Amino acid sequence: MSKQAAALIALQIKRKPDSVLGLATGDTPLLMYQELVRIYQKGELDFSKVKTFNLDEYLGLEKEDPQSYFYYMKEQLFRHINIQPENINIPNGMAQDRNLECSSYEAKIKETGGIDLQVLGIGVNGHIGFNEPDKNFEALTHVVSLDEKTIISNARFFESMKEVPTKAISMGIKTIFHAKKVVLLANGETKAKAVAKMVRGKIIPKVPASILQLHKDVTIVVDQEAGQLLQKNEIHR
Ligand code: F6R
Questions:
Q1: What does the alpha-carbon distance between residue 226 and residue 220 come to, in Å, rounded to a whole number?
Q2: Global model pTM greater than 0.70
Q3: Is 82 a known active-site residue?
Q4: Ligand 1 in contact with 90 (CB < 6 A)?
Q5: Whose CA is nearest to atom 12 of ligand 1?
Q6: C-alpha atoms less than 13 angstroms from C-alpha of 84 in its C-beta half-sphere
Q7: Cα dist from 76 to 67, 93, 119, 223, whole Å
Q8: Which of 153, 154, 170, 198 to mutate to test ligand 1, by most ligand atoms within 8 A of the CB atom?
Q9: Comparing C-alpha atoms, which of 91, 105, 96, 22 is closest to residue 58?
């Protein structure tokens, strides 16, 4: 899964060296980032003109906080490759004016000409970015209150439940949808239901990832466990 996904990203950068990538954090893309670093270290990939926009960041965590997505990206990818620091974009979770931070982030993505390839993971509840199941699809970059399932799932990275952030800044569904290509990764049995609903279920804001059924260029890369319910060819409502 990770090699396939890394190969898609590498191909994107080779075809368009100044690609704008949308990036995800979490467990799922860890080995994909390792693979990209490996390809870079072999001298086969140049990130010098690549720009990146991360999907999301927790509110209230400093960049240096080991639990922040800024720190994650630095450790997993950026410090190992030749990306220019000024080409890295991650929402600022410490911004004084959060709404301004959201609109500036959105404007900056537009300025670069938009995201060429967006990497996504999927939550057990079907979220993409931190677009949680809701009554509506939230369009643009916004402040989100994290879903209980997401908070519980994220708790594994923190020492106590009290420390787990409950809010984040996340790209919206429209922001993600505007990406020219989307590559969504999922692994493990816990993601099987969400994957099946995303691919074969109704397009509803209760399963935010289901909106991807309408996108013109999506590649879903799964391992056997995450894809197990797809093989049965059932409709998932
Ligand atoms: C991360 C993100 C989330 C994760 C999702 C899956 O930037 O936006 O949507 O992709 O929660 O997380 P993992 O990979 O940890 O299972």
A1: 11
A2: yes
A3: no
A4: no
A5: 26
A6: 8
A7: 13, 19, 15, 21
A8: 153
A9: 91
Residues 148 and 125: their CA atoms lie apart, in Å, by 10
Strands 56-58 and 142-145: unpaired
CA distance 167 to 93: 9
Pairing relationship of beta strands 56-58 and 51-54 according to DSSP bridges: unpaired
CA–CA gap between residue 120 and residue 128 (Å, rounded): 7
Q: Which residues contact 207 (CB under 8 A, 6 or more apart)?
A: 126, 133, 194, 197, 198, 201
- C-beta of 123 in contact with ligand 1 (< 6 A): yes
Instruction: Copy the structure tokens of residue 53.
Output: 């926009």
* Unique residue bearing structure tokens 């439940």: 161
Q: Give 10-60 pLDDT, tens digit per residue.
A: 999 999 999 999 999 999 999 999 999 999 999 999 999 999 999 999 999
User: Could you read off the pLDDT of 170-198 as tens digits, one per residue?
Assistant: 999 999 999 999 999 999 999 999 999 99
| Most informative mutation of 71, 89, 128 for ligand 1 (most atoms within 8 A of CB) | 128
